[in-house]
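Narrative of accomplishments. A recurring question from our advisory board has been how the design workflow behaves on a single, concrete structure rather than in aggregate. To address it, we present the structure tokens for one chain from the evaluation set, followed by the sequence designed for it. No filtering or post-editing was applied between the two.
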């Protein structure tokens, strides 16, 4: 697979680029300016290990499309990243193809620190029908960024998905291809007594099944084994708040454990070109 990394300015002019076969690195020796983007290009859809900044953990993600662009965060959007991220005048970026054994390994399939509101190419991707005051530190992407510190709120690393006190709030995590899942783990934000918590949440799977999960007042991982199923997305909804004085329940992290489905990535590419989908069963 041919891989390319680029830095482009607000007008689309390429400031730096690097291309390699199966792995490539880009060292950019300038400070970022507002309007610039980091672009990843692949010759075909597939799994890659992506590291767009040395202050953020490299992650195994799935590129459903052949190009992904991340706007370098400035202003409010910087608040959901480490203060060291995207700063300074030297930046090391890298991308490599994932090995078959890495793709087959059971892992948290809902992990993508590179997710963004505008993202439609790089999976998993999180979106929500509400985010507290539209602030980056309460955005849906925070629930899958891998940051689990949860005894404070409002700044990195205490990022979370905030629901703006809306009992109808819902969070969707999309995988971009069929995956087999068998466990869900919730990390509630636990800045007590500022925070409240949910006593019960519901998860609907793309297969049509809905499950309910009881939760307790805790910042620790609350994990639930589920019957293995093949899905393409989940929706978290039906958030039942505890009867306490605080109006602020929030989610720090959701983990969805499982494996890729063999051949599913290839299937997804074929579907985009109009071929009939293959029926997948356990």
């Amino acid at each position: 697979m041919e891989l390319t990394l680029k830095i482009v300015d607000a007008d689309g002019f390429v400031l730096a680029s690097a291309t390699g076969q199966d792995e490539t690195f880009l060292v950019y020796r300038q400070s970022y300016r507002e309007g610039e983007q980091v672009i990843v290009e692949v010759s075909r859809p597939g799994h890659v290990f992506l590291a767009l900044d040395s202050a953020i953990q490299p992650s195994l993600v799935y590129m459903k499309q052949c190009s992904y662009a991340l706007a370098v965060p400035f202003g409010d959007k910087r608040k959901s990243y480490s203060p060291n991220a995207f700063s300074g005048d030297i930046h090391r970026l890298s991308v490599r193809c994932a090995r078959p054994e890495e793709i087959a390994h059971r892992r948290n399939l809902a992990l993508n620190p590179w997710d963004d509101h505008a993202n439609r190419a790089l999976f998993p991707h999180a979106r929500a029908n509400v985010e507290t005051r539209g602030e980056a530190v309460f955005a849906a992407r925070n629930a899958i960024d891998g940051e689990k510190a949860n005894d404070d709120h409002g700044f990195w690393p205490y990022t979370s998905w905030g629901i703006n006190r809306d009992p109808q709030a819902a969070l969707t995590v999309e995988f971009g291809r069929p995956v087999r899942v068998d466990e869900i783990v919730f990390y509630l934000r636990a800045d007590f007594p500022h925070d409240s918590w949910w006593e019960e949440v519901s998860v609907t799977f793309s297969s049509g099944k809905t499950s309910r999960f009881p939760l307790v007042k805790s910042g620790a991982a609350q994990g639930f084994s589920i019957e293995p199923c093949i899905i393409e997305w989940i929706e978290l909804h039906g958030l039942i708040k505890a009867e306490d004085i605080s109006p602020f329940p929030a989610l720090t992290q959701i983990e969805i454990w499982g494996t890729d489905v063999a051949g599913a990535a290839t299937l997804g590419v074929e579907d985009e070109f109009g071929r009939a989908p293959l029926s997948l069963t356990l």
